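Holo prediction. Input below; ligand is heme C.
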Amino acid sequence: MEFLKDIALPQSAEHIQLLHYMLILILFLFIPFISAVFGGTVLSVYYKKKEKIDLDENCRKFSQDIVELVTINKNVGFILGLVPLLTAILIFSQLFQSSENSNLIYLGISFILFVIAFNFVYDYRNSFKYLGNVDLNSGKIGIVFLFFALWFFSAGMSVAVFYDHWKPEGIISSLFSSIVIIRFLFLLVSAFAITGGAILFGLFYLDGGKGKLDKNYGEFAKAKALKITFTATIILPLLFFANLIIIPGTSLSGGVFAYIIIGLFLLFLAYNFLYVIFARFSTKFTALLFFSLLFMVLTIIISDQLVISNSTKVSSAILAVQYDEILADLKGEGGPVELNGEEIYQVRCAACHKFDVKLVGPPHNEVVPKYFGKEKELIAYIRNPSKIDPNYPPMPNPGLKPNEVKAVVDYVLSRVKENMNK
Ligand code: HEC
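Structure of the complex:
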């Protein structure tokens, strides 16, 4: 994955924000689609096999309907399934460029597995055209590859979300860490919830409603899809909490909680819609059910993204500083530096510090007074920062020349003294 580092450029703070938004959008396309492809293929293969045992024509029809519904068609499959993942890999390589990260390795492997899986799944889907000769094996192989692709995908996302706290234990043993397993289970169970919702929505709403399905088959499909969705959504709250418990405290923020609560609320709405569909069938509610599940997934994606941006703040700030330097060079402002402490401060420190409020680093008005009369110590700290306050990440070395450090320290000390005398 070294080549990704070569194409990665430092990004300005605004670009980094934009990359986070793009990730949300991309994952919002990718995760529901890939979930439905996985859940749908599993169910389709299951009912295809069941047909042989029960000799029930409904099973065959259901099996075909499901796989045709969730995989849409091969082109859409590649556009929704592979392009977003590739883009996500490129975005992560920008976000994490300043540090080594196994996230890209996992996502890269999952991409390859998805490519293979898609080929089998679409072979399986297309084999339904040749009546009586469905290629069940392709379906099964596709499921196995999808399973592992999703697993590696969960691992890659876990590394990103737990960026600060990730203790690499080797590529394989990390796959079995509780974090990865919990997030993987979450993905699998929500995959079945989404698939169930998609089947109800697709068969009863999109395809022109129940009128088009014959009554017997309609009842069959409705009952099965309801059961699948209900079982999955009943398990989900458990995994919501497990997922919350494993998020490290330092990465939690009010926003993360807010989205998790919205997610649970949407799940609660989904229960109500399920009940309405069950009690007195209405096609409109299949759409509401599907969208509440879809947006529930969106809340998870957003809260993940918030955790990621919380935990990559420092590396993002470094990128932003490097970006400013490159920009200054490009503009021809990178010549011999006039040693103005304030200017150096604006470029090298202001991304993380303010005098009165906490940014990435502590407010200077709080931490600098202890250096009054000890300028040398502060200079030493800036030249080679050591870990001080456990509530903050360590400060990276700003890489200033000795005379620049002196200028910036003079500036900081005099500003803080001024602030104290106010
Ligand atoms: C990438 C972000 C970042 C940049 C850039 C940065 N700092 Fe920091 N700074 C931090 C963090 C985080 C801490 C808290 C470290 C700790 O407590 O271990 C910190 C702590 C400090 C402290 C407090 C040390 C103490 O004894 O408590 C001072 C003073 C300081 N920085 C000054 C500067 C100056 C001056 C610059 C510019 C040359 C600068 N910082 C650039 C993130 C940054």
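Residues 314, 317-318, 321, 348-349, 351-353, 360-362, 367-368, 381-382, 387-389, 392-396, 398, 400, 408, 412 surround heme C (CB under 6 Å). That is the main takeaway for now.
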